[in-house]
Amino acid sequence: MKYTAQELASMTNSRITGNKNEVVEQLIFDSRLIFSSKNNAFIALKTQKNNGSKYIKEAIEKGIKVIIADEIYESSGQDITWIITSDTQNFLRQLAHHHLQNLNIKTIGITGSNGKTIVKEWLYQCLWDEMRVVKSPKSYNSQIGLPLSILQANNDDELGIFEVGISKPHEMEKQSEVFSPQIGVFTHLGSAHSEYFENEEQLLNEKLKLFEKSEVIIYNGDHPLVKSKIQSLYSNKTLISYGLDTSNDILIESPIDQEEAFNIKVLDGHIQIPFTNRDQATLHNALAVIAVLNFLKITHSKIVEKINNLQAVEMRMESIKGERDNLIINDSYNLDLDSLKIALSTLNQYGNKSQKILVLTDIHDVKDHSEHLYHTVANLVNEHSLGKIYLIGTEITKFAHLFNSKTYSFDNIQELIEDQEFNSIENSLILLKGARKFELENLKKELELQSHDTVLEVNLNAILHNINVHRSFLKPETKMMAMVKAYSYGLGGYEIAEFLQHHNINYLGVAYADEGVDLRKNKVTLPIMVMNPELNSYDTIIDYQLEPEIYSFKVLDLFLKALRKKGIHERYPIHIKLETGMHRLGFRREDLDELLLKIKENNLRIASIFTHLSSADDPEEREYTLAQIDLYTNNSDYILARTEDKPLRHCLNSPGITNYTEYQFDMVRIGIGMIGYTTNPAIQPLLQSAVCFKTVITQISPLHPGESLGYNRRFKATNDTNIATIAVGYADGIPRLLSNGKGFVGIKGKLYPIQGNVCMDMLMVDIGNDPIEEGDDVIIFNGNPSLEKFAEYCQTIPYEVLTSVSRRVKRIYIKD
Ligand SMILES: *Cc1c(COP(=O)(O)O)cnc(C)c1O
């Protein structure tokens, strides 16, 4: 888009003050994502969870000249153009609606419970070289994501492919105010969003409102309810159904389990496609794409070629520890302008490296003149302060002069891999962004820290999902402390904390001062509570602005001494721990008067008052837990009535959040729940597993009857069998307890017993005569076996399992 501020105001009936001629090409709603002020406007969106007006100051500091908000925030600069609207979300919708009307563009709108993003990405892959296509970035399909996606469309685009999602009743009405696609696609009806809907039918009715003005609806006809609803509601439109059922217009005629290519019936004949991946969801998604291409009159031979070339939509960006303290961000699954933009903007989330480096290849999947394309690319890249840029390919290197940073050119990846200077880069963040053809995987392998095949894979998206599940139980104003003690339960140090810092966590909790120092050194700025301040750590606590838990008079006196020694007079924040039933640490009622007196005399600030529940995960201990909470309420009330400070109150850990929600007070402390573990059967299905410990088979060898395995010959074969040796042992955190059939690992979804004694760096698994090969993946936990099951083998709880995975196991972080 490109409008003047005046035009933006007129299209949305908003008030405007300041320079009406400022040009706006992009709206930004997250102040962290402002890298350039040129022709960017900041929109202070109000959502249930957040109020963007908090960030106006930051936006102005970053040079933004146009602000869209619900009022003028007086304190800010002089030369700002304000566009004032009573409802910023509505502003966004109106603007997107008008923008779309100004364009001469064909539109496809995709909705459904699953498959929206894949179908959209696949359609894009199939159509980008037929016409100029704009699409929603990633899975931008929400009330905010849809209008923002539409605003990315420009005059010369010919087709817009947009996803439309809803999560609550009446949202589709608003979405369809913005956008009513000419071609509607309905992918799938499931229960994924059903918590706000009474039943499937209500959900379906809501979704189908999107198509009220569509000319054609292409839908999955295998679902009887979907089929009958669409047919009765929209009998006046062109309807095209696809699916496996024989009543569909577009369908697979061959039996699904046959080896050869499938025979697919389309509107005007038959085509043959050899699918390798034949799970139902994939077939449905592919049929949806075929149906759209067929409707758009793409020739049969082109459809076959395009479908054969579809790439798996891997939308994950991985960050991997590299050699020489580098951090590698690998996002080389696809390369187009949107994904480049997104990848560049995520670089900002990693603050602790000395410089940022970009490796970028020729861009293939974009239909544009290279001159124009690479000017756009260079402008995008130049918005970020990069230390060095490595350009790969014969096209992009012609435009090296357009990039502001120090730029190096190579024809292919191999040349780069061999480059000396590239190989001496240290302590940097390296973003790999390249088209498939360039095989950036090879570069990634070179850069990775030691190729150790054993990894603990941590899925940050799942952590965020789990936090949101827990948050959904809480009042919007309740704060959240994330417990990142013990290396975040074994998952990682600053990597996790830094991620949490970007996702609305208010406080962090660590066990020891050292853990807090590590976070501070890696630019974590959230307030951090230290639970076990050791005798000698008080100086450190003060130096690094950590906040101690005070659980006894002894600790209080030591801390006061440290403050005096440092000559600190401001009111230092402390956290008071109350003893209510753990019988571990904390103050009791009889201590409180003396405690309050000391705090007052020494001018400390009570930042919070808390206690810890012993059995929030145990339904049988409900009475005890309620008594703990009751005692906590009384004793914290007592303190509250006698202090001017407004301490936060908190007592719930993860199981507490779901099982004792009404006692959330001002804050909760989430720990294991982030990782996706709970003992509550009603909650478990809502959570996603955020961690997977896996390795590969190093070697397979036969074992004959009478032969023995490993140290002390603890296993002897009775039949002919095969033994897989895998490279994890007790030094990696696999207890020796699992030797000799006590523990199991997962290979290709099936469990196999560990036999012989677990060694320091290896263990052996009896795989019988199953078709398993060297190099196959082995799951230690999560998947099959689950974390819980594995903990059972180890005769312990998931907490201990996680914190026992040794530091030498490489942690890999996955995030969108
Ligand atoms: C570890 C810890 C938590 C988090 O407990 P989970 O069971 O992992 O949610 C909460 N509060 C305190 C004081 C803790 O030490």
From TrEMBL:
Binding site for substrate: R584, M760
N6-(pyridoxal phosphate)lysine sites (modified residues): K485
Catalytically driven reaction(s): L-alanine = D-alanine
CC cofactor: pyridoxal 5'-phosphate
Keyword Manganese: no
GO MF annotation: an example: pyridoxal phosphate binding
Residues at the active site: K485, Y711
Domain Alanine racemase C-terminal: 690-814
Keyword set includes Isomerase: yes
Name of the top EC class for this enzyme: isomerase
Family matches, as Pfam families: Ala_racemase_C, Ala_racemase_N, Mur_ligase_C, Mur_ligase_M
Annotated EC: 5.1.1.1
Domain of life: Bacteria
Gene Ontology biological process terms in this record: D-alanine biosynthetic process
GO cellular component, one term: cytosol
Keywords: Isomerase, Ligase, Pyridoxal phosphate
Function noted in UniProt: Catalyzes the interconversion of L-alanine and D-alanine. May also act on other amino acids.
Entry's family note: Belongs to the alanine racemase family.
HAMAP family associated with the record: Ala_racemase
Protein name: Alanine racemase
